[in-house]
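Internal ticket #5521
Category: modeling
Description: The requester needs a full-assembly model to guide mutagenesis choices. All entity lines are attached below as received. Residue total reported by intake: 311.
Assigned to: D.W.
Attached entities:
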Amino acid sequence: MSTNTLVLAGTRTNERLGAVLMAAFLGLGLVFMAGFAPAMALHNAAHDFRHTQNFPCH
Amino acid sequence: MIIRLVSAALVAGFLAAVVATGLQLSLTSPLIIAAERYEMQASHAPALLSPASLIVQVHSGHDHGEKDPSVSGGETAPEWQPGPGLPRMAFTALATLVGGVGYALLLGAVLLACGREPTPETGLRFAIAGFLAVALAPAVGLPPELPGMDAAPLAERQFWWVMTAAATAMGLYLIAIRRVPIAIAGGLVLIVAPHLAGAPETSHSASALPPGYAAQFAARSLGIAFVFWTVLGLSYGWAWAMLGRKATGPAHA
């Protein structure tokens, strides 16, 4: 019984950890793309957004 | 769980991006376009008057309320950039959407990592922390700037920006969630340290840009960021609850 609960709690923690890591990774990737990516085309496309959201620009 | 998190982040990011895009296009984009005229005037001044720079000078008045398609088109950048007018607005909206979903995912990850059930209330609290960490704290050292304002090298500013955002977020976590005296002290140190270390020095050379534009832009930019984060937090909590209700039936409501 207690091992069952432990295993359950374990998988739940693992699932949560996986979700946190996955979301953090995806989120950082998207924010990097919109705010920091050095490629000129990306910079130009996101230019006004970067200025307004106070990402260092130019 | 990851599905629910990503779905809620998509909803929240979309809603926040819609609001922020509307505000950006009406409040800050006109200022950016007006500032680009000054930037171009400065960079084209020594050159002979080409037809493009003539147009720029003719239009360099104070009619910053409307977008002038000839202006951003007159920029002679060799790299691809969105066309003036509608394409440019569309890409601004797209970038806002990408950034909004990205921040929403981070918000969801932090809520989950801190063991908080996302509700509009906790969403709002964490979103305000997000605003403090990525908008207000970096802006203290590196004020939101318009094109054409002199600034330190990009890499230094980006490094300081990321460090400040990370240190402020960590500091807020220690103060608001750990809440023991030693953690609060550490949190305060983390929040203050980037500013004591100092942001990359902004050049104080005079610019042709009227200071009123810059001041207006900085205030509007922070205002938009605040609204963006507020909507993001509230709608993330709302979307999370809505998606949970759908998945687990009315018992969860």
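Resolution: model delivered.
Comment from assignee: Chain A has one domain: 2-52.
Ticket closed.
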